[in-house]
Design a protein that fits this description.
globular; Thrombin, subunit H; Peptidase_S1_PA_chymotrypsin; 3 domains; 10-stranded antiparallel sheet; mainly beta; single chain; Peptidase_S1_PA; Serine protease; Alpha-Beta Plaits
Length: 334
């Protein structure tokens, strides 16, 4: 799905915002965005409100009150079948983890590395394949500093990686590498949870590095962090995550509104004005990549990766400016 230009989006955006809650309330709808209308598998070149559903059904099989309109205020509405899932990994300790490009151990804390909480969580279906104790795997994306001027150095990741559920508390320990990647409590505690935000636009957390732990403001396989920038349509971005390593995508939208299930205690949350990226080839993200940052060609961070679709061809990120403001931190640069 290609991206209409900003002039067209600006005209559609108020219409989309007016109806997105109504559309998200319909059974099976998980996202509302702006993109190119596709009819019969062919691109039309016409901009549309794009509604993502878990399963497409013939309109004759859908109750009238649940039908998605074909257009709103003259704007066509396109319906696509896909899923939106959080891209942390839930694994049992000791169970052989799936192949991971970024599960290696680093003595110096940098961006793009494996991490996860020290604590495990008891999960039951449908939150996990079977009942049991699970550990969380994600990515430390980049280093940040406290805006209060205390001189603290923290690492950026997502809320659902660092906090897991509604039982989190400041001081929870984070390991690098994660427990399923060989990390062990005490020996591999790299940081403690300092602050977190799960809001209408941000899924983020900052963990405070342990005193004396060496660090560098670089992202492995990417290089030194140069700062931040606003994401822009059409920009090529890279991310380095625990699961898929270094991958490339193109910014396809800044208008994605998602309905995401965060599990027991947190429930379904709606995140608005998210960055949607489309893979430049192959899988862009997978379970374990949550917390990675998106960087542009100048190594400026533009987003914090937190979710994707089932195939990994599309990913979603919080705009980095909103993340930094809600955590009250700034990106650390060289």
């Amino acid at each position: 799905m290609t991206s209409p230009d900003e002039t067209v989006r600006a005209a559609i955006r108020p219409v989309k915002k007016r109806v997105e809650d109504e559309l998200l309330a319909l059974p099976g709808v998980v996202a509302v965005d702006i993109g190119e209308q596709v009819t019969g598998g062919a691109r039309t070149g016409r901009a549309a409100i794009v509604v993502t559903v878990l399963r497409k059904r013939h309109e004759l099989d859908v109750p009238t009150e649940h039908l998605i309109p074909r257009e709103v205020a003259g704007v066509p509405v396109d319906v696509v079948e896909d899923a939106v899932v959080l891209h942390r990994a839930l694994l049992t300790e000791g169970f052989p983890p799936p192949a991971a490009q970024g599960a290696e151990r680093h003595d110096v804390v940098i961006g793009g590395i494996s991490a996860g909480p020290a604590r495990s969580v008891l999960l039951v279906p449908p939150q996990a394949p079977r009942q049991g104790e699970y550990v969380i795997v994600g990515t430390l994306g980049a280093l940040v500093t406290d805006r209060a001027g205390a001189g603290d150095v923290l690492a950026l990741t997502t809320f659902h990686v660092a906090c897991v559920d509604d039982a989190w508390q400041v001081g929870d320990e984070m390991l690098h590498p994660s427990r399923v990647d060989g990390g062990r409590c005490a020996r591999d505690v790299v940081a403690t949870l300092a602050r977190a935000a799960l809001s209408g636009s941000v899924d983020a957390a900052a963990v405070l590095l342990r005193p004396g732990r060496p660090y560098r403001p670089v992202i492995t396989e990417v290089g030194p962090v140069a700062g931040t920038a606003n994401p822009t349509l059409g920009t090529l971005v890279r991310k380095r995550g625990r699961a898929t390593g270094l991958t490339v995508a193109r910014v396809a939208s800044l208008d994605a509104t998602l309905s995401v299930d965060y599990g027991d205690g947190l429930g379904v949350r709606t995140l608005r004005d998210q960055v949607r990226v489309e893979s430049a080839g192959g899988r862009f993200g997978d379970y374990g990549d949550s917390g990675a940052v998106l960087v542009d060609a100048d190594n400026r961070i533009v987003g914090l990766y937190f979710a994707g679709n089932g195939s990994g061809s599309a990913g979603y990120a919080n705009p980095i400016g909103k993340v930094l403001d809600q955590l009250d931190v700034d990106v650390l640069t060289c």
